Amino acid sequence: DTEVTQTPKHLVMGMTNKKSLKCEQHMGHRAMYWYKQKAKKPPELMFVYSYEKLSINESVPSRFSPECPNSSLLNLHLHALQPEDSALYLCASSNTVSGESYNEQFFGPGTRLTVL
Amino acid sequence: KQEVTQIPAALSVPEGENLVLNCSFTDSAIYNLQWFRQDPGKGLTSLLLIQSSQREQTSGRLNASLDKSSGRSTLYIAASQPGDSATYLCAVKVSNQGGKLIFGQGTELSVKP
């Protein structure tokens, strides 16, 4: 099973709402990632978790708050977002982050977020 | 700073043609290079991953090559089909940056019946 699942598929929220995105994988991967993708642009890395610990934060605004409750789950908590945060949010996982090991990244289908 | 470039940005071919997509990167200190496919509004599907010590990988009608010294990779698609229409992205995993992938801007491929 090489599947990464994400819920919800679509999310519309107001600027004062609090919502969460969820990502799950059952491949035994120990690295999980959040990416943001705007239309016609490549994905941009937001966060990396390695063995349930945050290892990379690409200077993401604090209105995005990641959480890794266990090795299979990754959440992204959203609060007080801006309309420019509307994008496709992609989750990915890989075996590890170690550069010397075989660690193909597998992506989920994404959550389409619209902030009104 | 690693930069990844994909040429062309868009490509339209008739069904049945063999085609080559290009990816170049500025810093040869990479761990691997991964080719992805993305359909509109969807997630990324991994097509091929080439480790830095490898020269090529093959999967079905796809063949990806890697020349680290020249900073280039190509994705060869044989006997293209309309179902191959999608955006193709290459990404390099840079050394010592904790799993971070640097993506190219993508090539939007359209295969006409």
Please bin the fraction of helical residues of chain A: under 10%
User: How many E-type strands of chain B?
Assistant: 11
Gross geometry of chain A: globular
Hey, roughly how much beta strand do the residues of chain A contain? over 45%
Mean pLDDT across every amino acid position of chain A: 92
Structural class label of chain A: mainly beta
Provide a descriptive summary of the structure in words.
The complex is a heterodimer of chains A (116) and B (113). Chain A is built from no helices and 11 strands. Chain A has strands at 4-7, 10-13, 18-25, 31-37, 44-50, 53-57, 64-70, 73-79, 87-94, 106-107, 111-115. Helix content of chain B is 0%, strand content 59%. Chain B has strands at residues 4-7, 10-14, 19-25, 30-38, 44-51, 56-59, 62-67, 72-77, 86-94, 101-103, 107-112. In chain B, the strands form 2 sheets. In chain B, strands 2, 4, 5, 9, 10 and 11 form a 6-stranded mixed beta sheet that branches. Chain B is globular, with a radius of gyration of 14 Å. Chain B starts with a strand and ends with a strand. The mean pLDDT of chain B is 94. The interface between A and B is medium-sized, with 30 and 26 residues.
Brief digest:
The complex is a heterodimer of chains A (116) and B (113). Chain A has 116 residues and is an all-beta fold.
Blueprint of the fold:
The complex is a heterodimer of chains A (116) and B (113).
Chain A: E1 4-7, E2 10-13, E3 18-25, E4 31-37, E5 44-50, E6 53-57, E7 64-70, E8 73-79, E9 87-94, E10 106-107, E11 111-115
Parallel strand pairs in A: 2-11
Antiparallel strand pairs in A: 1-3, 3-8, 4-5, 4-9, 5-6, 7-8, 9-10, 9-11
Chain B: E1 4-7, E2 10-14, E3 19-25, E4 30-38, E5 44-51, E6 56-59, E7 62-67, E8 72-77, E9 86-94, E10 101-103, E11 107-112
Parallel strand pairs in B: 2-11
Antiparallel strand pairs in B: 1-3, 3-8, 4-5, 4-9, 6-7, 7-8, 9-10, 9-11
Task: Using brief descriptors, characterize the structure shown.
heterodimer; A: mainly beta; four-stranded antiparallel sheet; 11 strands; B: 113 residues; mainly beta; six-stranded mixed sheet
